[in-house]
Amino acid sequence: METRHKPKKEWYRVRSIDPISIVSPYIMKNRIGSQNLLTDRIPTARVDKFIKAKQEEGMKNLSFMHVFVAAYIRAVSQRPALNRFIRGQKLYSRRDIELAITIKKEMSLESPDTVIKIMFSPTDTLQDVYEKMNKAIEGYRAEQDSGLDKLAKVISFIPGLLLRGTIGFLRFLDYFGLLPRFLTRFSPFHASIYITSMGSLGIPPVYHHLYDFGTVPIFCAFGAKQREFKVNADGSVFKYQYVDLTFSLDERIADGYYFASALKLLRGIMRNPDQLMAPPETVNYDIP
After folding, report:
1. I want to staple 106 with a disulfide (CB 3.0 to 4.6 A). Which of 28, 80, 111, 259 is the partner?
2. Strand partners for 237
3. Which of 207-229 are b and which e, b meaning 16 or more Cβ less than 10 Å from the residue's Cβ?
């Protein structure tokens, strides 16, 4: 007789934490009241050369976004607490890395924004990220509406008072982790990280707030590439190219030392992006 195994959930409870981490979500009850804001600057000279070389090798529309997402996934493979989230005052960790990203069908004022969701594995390489992101974006632009657009359209038909009650019921289900997967699969509020680019708009990155609904613990934005001239110690002048990043972080998922370590790791990967062409030598998983 064949034995059927129940499929594992995409997340699991983390219990191996200190008492302060257990108590904190009951004191800081929501993400808005728990968020820390951080900014950083990533030099892009090496990344730009790497991107140009890979474009010549066949990855024609490889961009900074692809490399950054791949670098972030690599950082999560070594610092798995980045993939945690708080739900119902309890700490959980995801098995995979779920990215939410805002895109436009066309670069015009009239074109509406939508959010696409892409699932990654901690072992994914830049090639994997490149293919998965391109497939998701091209698929959305080829269709009339994304899954999120269709879901939002259905919900928008509910009359105002009933809609308020419906959202309240969804919040109740979400608190206990009972929202069906077909909803969280499209929801921009349920992801490992939400990334948005201001680069195509030519403006600096915003500090985007976190959402109290859902599970997103980290919001990252980056701006347009900038250039400035700096002076070396010997008096020579050089051109410095960089991209500014902003992060909004739910401090309840990890401490400041852990976030600092993860950010240093991310910087190092962006300085040497060639390592992203191969899977990580080891993957660290969160301890339940």
Report:
1. 111
2. 231
3. ebebbeebbbbbbbbbbebeeee
Please tell me the pTM assigned to this model.
0.91
Pairing between β-strand 90-94 and β-strand 11-13 as defined by DSSP bridges: antiparallel
- The percentage of the chain sitting over the pLDDT mark of 90, rounded to a whole number, equals 70
Cβ contact 88:176 at 8 Å: yes
Please, are residues 244 and 204 in contact by the beta-carbon 8 Å criterion?
yes
**What domains can be seen in the chain, in order of their start residue?**
13-277 (3.30.559.10)
Residues in the chain: 288
pLDDT at 3 over 60: no
Mean pLDDT on 129-157: 82
For the stretch 186-226, pLDDT in tens is: 898 999 999 998 887 778 899 999 999 999 999 999 998 89
Tell me which of 46-50, 166-170, 234-238 is least confident. 234-238
CA distance 123 to 128: 9
Burial label, 201 (beta-carbon count in 10 A; 0-12, 13-18, 19+) = exposed
How many CA atoms, within 13 angstroms, populate the side-chain half-sphere of residue 152? 12
DSSP 62-121: --HHHHHHHHHHHHHHH-GGGGEEEETTEEEEESSEEEEEEEESSSSSSSPEEEEEEEE-
Distance between CA atoms of 271 and 269, rounded to whole angstroms?
A: 5
